[in-house]
Amino acid sequence: MPSSPSLRCSQVFRLIGHILGTGTWEQRKLGDISKITAGGDIDKDKLSTRGRYPVIANALTNNGVVGYYDSYKVKGPAVTVTGRGDVGHAKTRIESFTPIVRLLVVSAPNFDINFLENAINNIRIFNESTGVPQLTAPQLGSYEFEYPCSSEQVCIDNVLHKIDNLIAANEQVPKLVIKIVNNSLANSSFSN
């Protein structure tokens, strides 16, 4: 199973920032530096299997896309965060889209959008619900996190993107070795 950026530990996240930058980061509540909204009801009459703009729910499969509309509610880029069930998973959305149900949308025009995704994925979300886990916009907005200036955000994002690519490439190596061994065995004299 591929590694998730959310599995990165926050100490590594901050360490990269300190190595690349001045080490001076501000600490603020997410709600103070961004606009956080929640999705709404789905309009099943407008929903189609094809269209220009994705309709995105809390699902972690298929990037959360459940269909398409010909219009959108949120102009990209933005970050979506799952708000019900498996809460707290952030995902960068470059294209404009419509969030539905309890999907949270974080818009912060003064931030590198990929840095913001990684920062949110490094927040330890406390779930106080006893039933279906839920994360509300005010709850997400109350979390504090540290961040550097814009240029350092871009540098950190570039480093993390390269690390993700290296991890993904290395995860493919065992699969390739198994495939080569299986092909070799199938074509060898042992197969008869």
Low-confidence stretches: 1-9
Our measurement of the CA-to-CA distance between the termini, rounded to an integer number of angstroms, reads 34 Å
Q: Helicity range of the residues?
A: 25-40%
Please trace the helix and strand order, writing H or E for each element: HEHEEEEEEEHHEH
Principal-axes geometry comes out as: globular
Number of helices: 5
Number of strands: 9
Overall pLDDT metric: 82
Biggest sheet statistics: 4 strands, antiparallel
Keywords:
192 residues, alpha+beta, four-stranded antiparallel sheet, three-stranded mixed sheet, 5 helices, 9 strands, 35% helix, 18% strand, disordered N terminus
Task: Describe this protein's structure.
With 192 residues, this protein is an alpha+beta fold. It has five helices and nine strands; from the N terminus they run αβαβββββββααβα. β5 and β6 (90-93) form a beta hairpin. The protein starts with 9 loop residues before the first helix and ends in a 5-residue tail after the last helix.
